[in-house]
What we know:
Blueprint: E1 7-8, E2 18-25, H1 29-40, E3 45-49, E4 62-63, H2 65-69, E5 79-83, E6 85-90, E7 93-99, E8 105-108, H3 110-123, E9 127-130, E10 134-138, E11 150-154, E12 159-167, H4 174-179, E13 183-195, H5 198-204, E14 207-212, E15 219-225, E16 228-236, H6 240-253, E17 263-272, E18 279-280, E19 283-285, H7 301-320, H8 324-358, H9 360-369, H10 371-382, H11 387-393, H12 395-404
Parallel strand pairs: 2-3, 2-12, 3-9, 6-14, 12-19
Antiparallel strand pairs: 1-2, 4-8, 5-8, 6-7, 10-11, 11-12, 13-16, 13-17, 14-15, 15-16, 18-19
Helix pairs in contact: 1-3, 1-7, 7-8, 8-9, 8-11, 9-10, 11-12
Amino acid sequence: MSSEHVSQDSDDNAADRPVWDVVVVGAGPAGASAAHAAASAGSRVLLLEKAELPRYKTCGGGIIGPSRDCLPPGFALPLKDRVHAVTFTLDGRLGRTRRSKKMLFGLVNRPEFDAALVDAAVKAGAQLREGVTVTRVEQHGPSVPDRRTVAVTTADGETVLARAVVGADGSASRIGTHVGVEFGQVDLGLESEIPVPPEVAEDWAGRVLIDWGPLPGSYGWVFPKDDVLTVGVIAARGQGEATKRYLGDFIARLGLAGFEPRVSSGHLTKCRTADSPLSRGRVLVAGDAAGLLEPWTREGISYALRSGRLAGEWAVRVAEAQDAVEARRQALNYAFAVKSGLGAEMGVGRSMLNVFAKRPGLLHAILTTFPPAWNVFAGITRGTTSLAESVRRHPAARKALELMDR
């Protein structure tokens, strides 16, 4: 497909409206990755973002191996720190630090990281429009000129036409609602960006803290980024006051209560049910909009990057489909690719969350005293293995997980 011109629909009611090959809604990691993949394949791509970039997102900003592996070719990570050590605590007690000669993962500020991903998509040929809020998607009705077209309506009343749409508009996704995404796990994350003096920043350089929290399935983190510490906690939704107390106690325990946060924010993370749809007609969903994230750690960047790239690649094929049968076949291929990879990882992650919620002390003891467990943790963060692959390769680990998850 040529990327020089936007095709014109022949329907009389839409004679002057261009029809894009792929419209991507949301310019976070999932959307930017989808736009980059589709544009790199030669598709005419429009990337719509409701905010003005760069914009702040509540996120620790950890870039693990699977995230690095899915970045555009030549992409320069705007790293603020390189992590070589992890301190684990159990609700502030029994602290132990494990170290690695090789980098475990990197830390970024999301505004810079997301903006760089969007820049890569634009350089690949995608067209970006900021400050555009999408309110509705239609695949049938007066706004849709033919069965090969999807109509995307914006808050200002404009209708944008496309052969395929990728919804990557976050956990409160309008596109996800259209597709029918269902969530089986919802958590509340609270976070503060705390500027600290050089002597405090130096103590944290290259090291993160993970605290297994007092609420079932909760944990806290400290991620250093130059002269700022990103401090946050996450727990199941419905425990708002207790989660706020956990964050306050956590910050005080760390000796950081005297420093004024630059930003304090909250965000709901949502995990899809195993059978939740990933497409409807010519519309695909990716990243948070699809409920794709690791259930135990709630890590979402790698899931966004990987599902976004897959969505962009398959959106190209959906756009080329000449009829509904072929479009559905390509959409199902996308769903299969996501479920066979990310879905398998999420399944193991759900079991890990169940075990962790019941026995946080046991998990803490295993990670801090059993070298093979630390090696698996390090391998996951570096991207040399995954949780699902580790369980699959070690029958004893799989059996132990099954027993503890009962």
